[in-house]
């Protein structure tokens, strides 16, 4: 099984805002705003050595600017903002457009509404969350986010792609130019790596799902609809083509759709693993691999916690993890420290067994979480 290391977009384990996080607890390599699986993102995704610098955020007080065209709004945006209650703003989002109807997508959540002149008002499908904002130039703007309990104010600045021909494509429709494939790529936004979708040239002879591939920063070696994922534990460029998805129903029977952090509605089909060998929940991971929490997308983009096999390291409970330092079997990286996983039948030696913040998938044993 391949190392999936997504960063796992828990952009808010509590309020689940698209603008920031009010998490009470999160699992990550080196930040407190994403759930991680103990492996480096840059070690798994094809074409991850490319970087980009977001354009400077311009003065949002500009007056009498020309109204931007609706089509010009499409693309990736760096975000710089603050939220109430000490929550941090997310760093990246995608803007899509059809005619003058804009859709803002942050991981698996989306808000839509019209662009009128420079101004926009976007709302979630149920109307419980809103964005109101304005563009001050064709490439910069600002917004105010409100979900009733959390508010955020942020500036946005267009990100020029460097790892792909264009960013924020749809992995299921492959809305790229002829000869390109929509895959997951890594960009640098506000001096931090993020994973997003991008249109990348296809190799001359791309291989099918499940076949061997070689990672490259300039092209994708897998057929359209697949991503070359580095093999677990490998330090080279050897990988396996893995099917892209947006919902679990798009994967084969017995598979789940593991969400890729930051990327707009992108995941990889994979199998769940059993977090404890004496219980169910999925396959037992091979030697040298660790069963780790992952965020999955079900039907209608409903998100929940499941598990997947990833690289097992040697770091013990309480030791620092992240940046290539992996926790040992039975441990997960929480706030940059290795922490035991637990469930009803496997209680914590110290502390309380705590939920990862979203509903657990039906395959998991009762009470699955981490020791806090």
Describe the structure.
There is one protein chain. The protein has 372 residues and is mostly beta strands. It has a domain of 88 residues: Lipocalin, CATH 2.40.128.20. The protein has no helices and 25 strands. The strands form six sheets. It has an eight-stranded antiparallel β-barrel with strand order 2-4-5-6-7-8-9-10. A hairpin with a 2-residue loop joins strand 4 and strand 5. The protein starts with 19 loop residues before the first strand and ends with a strand. The N terminus is likely disordered.
Query: What is the CATH architecture descriptor of the domain at 71-158?
Result: Beta Barrel
With helices defined by DSSP (H or I, 4 residues minimum), what is the helix count? 0
Largest sheet: 8 strands, antiparallel, barrel
pLDDT < 50 stretches: 1-67
Q: Would you list the SSEs in sequence order as H and E?
A: EEEEEEEEEEEEEEEEEEEEEEEEE
The CATH topology label of the domain at 71-158 is Lipocalin
The proportion of residues in beta strands is 35-45%
Key terms:
Lipocalin, 372 residues, five-stranded antiparallel β-sheet, globular, 0% helix, eight-stranded antiparallel beta barrel
Give a brief outline of the structure.
This protein is an all-beta fold.
Secondary-structure blueprint of this entry?
Layout: E1 20-21, E2 75-83, E3 88-89, E4 92-98, E5 101-106, E6 109-116, E7 119-123, E8 130-135, E9 140-146, E10 151-158, E11 166-167, E12 180-189, E13 192-207, E14 212-214, E15 220-222, E16 226-230, E17 238-245, E18 256-259, E19 267-270, E20 289-297, E21 303-311, E22 331-334, E23 337-342, E24 353-354, E25 369-371
Parallel strand pairs: 13-15
Antiparallel strand pairs: 1-3, 2-4, 2-10, 4-5, 5-6, 6-7, 7-8, 8-9, 9-10, 11-13, 12-13, 14-17, 16-17, 17-19, 18-19, 20-21, 22-23, 23-25, 24-25
